[in-house]
Amino acid sequence: MTTFIWIAAVVVLIGIYLSWTAGRLDRLHARIDAARAALDAQLLRRASVAQEIGTSGVLDPAASIVLYQAAHAARQAPEDGREVAESELTQALRATLGEREQVDAVGAAPGGEQTLAELTAAVRRVPMARRFHNDAVRAARAVRRHRLVRYFRLAGHAPFPLAFEMDDEPPAVLGAPHTAA
Amino acid sequence: MRIGIVCPYAWDVPGGVQFHIRDLAEHLLSRGHHVSVLAPADDGTPLPPYVVSAGRAVPVPYNGSVARLNFGFLSAARVRRWLQHGAFDVIHIHEPASPSLGLLSCWAARGPIVATFHTSNPRSRAMIAAYPILQPALEKISARIAVSEYARRTLVEHLGGDAVVIPNGVDVDFFARAEPKAAWQSQAEGAGDEGGARPGATIGFIGRIDEPRKGLPVLMRALPAILAEVPDARLLVAGRGDEEEAVAALAPELRRHVEFLGMVSDEDKARLLRSVDLYVAPNTGGESFGIILVEAMSAGAAVLASDLDAFAQVLDQGEAGELFANEDADALAAAAVRLLRDPARLAELRERGSRHVRRFDWSTVGADILAVYETVTEGAEPGRSVAADEPAGRTAQDYGG
After folding, report:
1. Which of B77, B165, B274, B361 has the most CB atoms less than 10 A away?
2. What SS3 class is residue A171?
3. Which of B110, B163, B380 sits opposite A131 (nearest CB)?
4. CA–CA separation, A108 vs A116, rounded Å?
5. Do residues B120 and B401 make contact, with C-beta atoms less than 8 angstroms apart?
6. ipTM score of the complex?
7. More confident call, B386 vs B128
């Protein structure tokens, strides 16, 4: 009889642990979804502002085409080509807005100050959102690697979380806007 | 935005984290946000209107020193009540890994959570043992902030994951506008020693006198060599501690070159930093940021600091202030003498520091922190704010069944 009680107790404890872990995992997946939504929003904002600058005619024609093309590609990229397309937009931004004069030219156009402020915010927030996303991915992966989680399939049908890898180094002039005295 | 901030240390005890939270809260309030700070405080302590007491902090030995912490059912209940009443869009927890209010709120809350890691403690045994306990709480944090690249590196090594670096903020203009005090300044006119130092050149030090990590002993060892070269230099020391003990190792005839100012007010601190020819930060370790260097630069002081990782970063790897080999009194003396004899270089450091320090101003730092808040709330389900957490198991059943 005592053995039975012990076994029952252990089974109940394991059950509680599994249920708790499943709850944890569910939350982590929700956190990844939220982080991904935030990252998407920031990427889209960045591409929109870049496209605006590309079509505004403020920059020289060559720079305008490069920027417009990269922004367009980033917005249209299929899921599996997204990281590459966004990285290319980053590089295009660095190439076209790498120097103070070009940034000042954008700022001098009507409404340019506003556009620059939006772009500055976007290139600052994309790396932030990406770090938060990848941090959530890492936390979820750490839990999903547990043996119990795998044996009992606690993760359900949720796909294995993948980090979002891209080049998000902002143009030096925009990335450190606060160094300007 | 409705913002809840959790302070892990007693509100009535002065400390870097508390000051940071106070300034952050006031900055956010001035920008029109709703802010509530949950902090340990003795009942009866006068608190600013935006601070809610989480009860008295209990002094317990932790991590090699006596820390005043909050724990237990009573504190946990207060945290839950604060969360329920606040209906925050985001909560910002400071030091979530310390066994105090930070960890309690991390445990008790759900929804968008931002956390700032201030210290960069080497991995302690308690942390390793507590890892399985900490992890479920820490993995709720949607966004991590580290106060320096150095703090971020320790965080990544110890807990994995990643963080964005946002430095601590300073009200640069408060220091820049302070009025210099003649008694703490060197004389502008007249010849100094033959080396070119100004007569009565002043060196400043601010920090606890009896805390060896703040480095006053290193500076005291360097002082005889400095005075040998710049005989009328004066050292002005502001901070708490035993003054007799601090000068005990110094030859009696040199002691008159050291002036103790005791604890100084914020205003006097700013005036002191505005007045001195050279500010020396000889800290030997345990610094994850170095707010005092930022304050010194804000006041336009030329800075000479030990080459701790955190200091080197604040000083832009030696661009905005000079660095000397940590704990090396000879190197400190040599650098101080060279600088005091070179007013042009001092002026250059002042100018560079004042330009560099703008990135630490609250206007910049506050905007960055708000950007983090907006990033984490943006992804969250609309209308869903921070709430007290139910036990995870129940959520799991809701989810699974």
Report:
1. B274
2. coil
3. B163
4. 10
5. no
6. 0.84
7. B386
Closest CA to B83 of B54, B126, B46: B54
User: Which percentage of chain B shows pLDDT scores above 70?
Assistant: 90
Structure tokens that stand for B155 in this block: 């965080």
Chain A nearest C-alpha distance from B137 (Å): 10
C-alpha span between A141 and A113 (Å, rounded)? 42
Distances (CA, A) of A133 to A78, A164, B165: 19, 8, 15
- Count Cβ–Cβ pairs < 8 Å, chain A vs chain B: 112
- In degrees and rounded to multiples of 5, residue B171 shows phi and psi of -85, 90
Enter the DSSP assignment of B381. Answer: P
Q: Is the dihedral of CA B219, B223, B225, B230 positive or negative?
A: positive
- For residue A73, the tally of other CB atoms under 10 A from its CB is 17
Could you please report the per-residue DSSP string of B37-81?
EEE---TT----TTEEE--PPEEEEETTEEEEE--SHHHHHHHHH
pLDDT tens, residue by residue, B179-211? 888 888 877 655 445 566 777 789 999 988 888
**Which DSSP string corresponds to A57-94?**
T-S-HHHHHHHHHHHHHHHH--GGGHHHHHHHHHHHHH
Q: Do B378 and A37 touch (CB under 8 A)?
A: yes
Could you count the other beta carbons within 10 Å of the beta carbon of residue A37?
16
Number of C-beta neighbours around residue A98 at 10 A: 13
Strands B51-53 and B34-39, how do they pair? parallel
Query: How far apart are the C-alpha atoms of A53 and A107, rounded to whole Å?
Result: 11
Q: What is the pTM of this model?
A: 0.82
A41–B379 C-beta distance less than 8 A: yes
Q: Which domains does chain B have, with CATH numbers?
A: 2-169+361-400 (3.40.50.2000), 172-359 (3.40.50.2000)
Sign of the torsion formed by the C-alpha atoms of A63, A66, A69 and A73: negative
Chain A CA closest to residue B359: A178
CB B37 within 8 A of CB B114: no
Where exactly are the structural domains of chain A? 15-176
Picking from A31, A135, A178, the nearest residue to B359 by CB comes out as A178
Write out the DSSP string of B146-199. ESSHHHHHHHHHHH-S--EE-PPPB-HHHHHTPPP-GGGS--SSS---TT-PPT
